[in-house]
């Protein structure tokens, strides 16, 4: 019990010093500004369009303003998706592109019935209170950091043997009315330090909470969600599944042709030559041919075992935790596995998770220069299998530049899973794979 309390307390106190906190505070600042500006632009354009279109003479101009507002809302939605990816590495697929109709009336009609644009409008309107909390969070963090420096400021700029000409003023970020208090001596600056540290700590966890809520809003309102959009997304993932299966079959065929098949062909030739030599008196030659045939047979069996292991690893028969432990034991970099799987996933999900872990370990071995790899896999209450692979290497992994992570993201998306990458320069690298328990 005491150990759990110490661990939770350490997690809470270490949070302000993590890269995640820096990214989330930057997201609060830039996302809050973008949200506030986007709200003003959206509300002004919608109000102008609706007001002008209410009159008979201004109907055309009003409708054009409404279509322009919807188009701008789509662009604002794209901006928020990009901010989520750039700053907190949260990727949300864009909704289907707008398909314009034919003619002016057709274009206006299509634009006015553009559901992704209206959902982007909803996000811009809902974003205002979220943006207020985000901007308050970044303000509290900045004020807290300033308050922490007050003892140093006092010694450098306010120290006066005869007493200060006027007191320092410390701000209280927990007072919404802009509260402040005066400091008349150096000991009083420590009250500002305590208040500043509490402010930074509160801002850290408030940023974490509001960022989590904003992620849900971005996915719900700025990603594909309607039935038509869902069909489009399913068509895309089905295409990826077909391509992935075709690529896997081509790889199996190539391995069979270039490996096991060639060795078995050599085995047949050697055995045929041995048969022709059976009547000769040169027993040594026959023995050499038979030895060569035996070696080829052994090599062919090894190749076939590797191919079978690549299609379905035998270690998965004992469950995913056991398979990952076997995988970690064979890693060139020391690897540890922590597993907490309450309900066993479907075989297809286990296979995908296993090969994702194998590929991520291979990537870390080739590119990360890491000393340690940590593999965490557990099931969430929402029925999601979460695989986390972390290494302490140099970082810099990016799924957007055609690396092996792109192929993993495509394979994961075939079962409606997704992959998240956090790999700042200098490390550490954390790859999160989320999969449903059933395909």
How would you summarize the topology of this molecule?
Layout (H helix, E strand, L loop, with lengths): L1 H13 L4 H35 L5 H30 L14 H10 L2 H34 L1 H9 L9 E4 L8 E4 L5 H34 L4 H51 L5 H29 L8 H10 L5 E6 L6 H22 L4 E7 L4 E8 L12 H10 L4 E5 L6 E8 L3
Parallel strand pairs: 3-4
Antiparallel strand pairs: 1-2, 4-5, 5-7, 6-7
Helix pairs in contact: 2-3, 2-5, 2-7, 3-5, 5-7, 8-9, 10-11, 11-12
What does this structure look like?
By secondary structure, the chain is α+β, with helices and mostly antiparallel strands. It has helices spanning 2-14, 19-53, 59-88, 103-112, 115-148, 150-158, 189-222, 227-277, 283-311, 320-329, 347-368, 404-413, and strands spanning 168-171, 180-183, 335-340, 373-379, 384-391, 418-422, 429-436. The strands form two sheets. The chain has a five-stranded mixed β-sheet with strand order 3-4-5-7-6, covered by helices on one side. The chain has a two-stranded antiparallel ribbon with strand order 1-2. Helix 2 crosses helix 7 (189-222) and helix 8 (227-277) runs antiparallel to helix 9 (283-311). It is flat, with a radius of gyration of 31 Å. The model has no long low-confidence stretch (mean pLDDT 77).
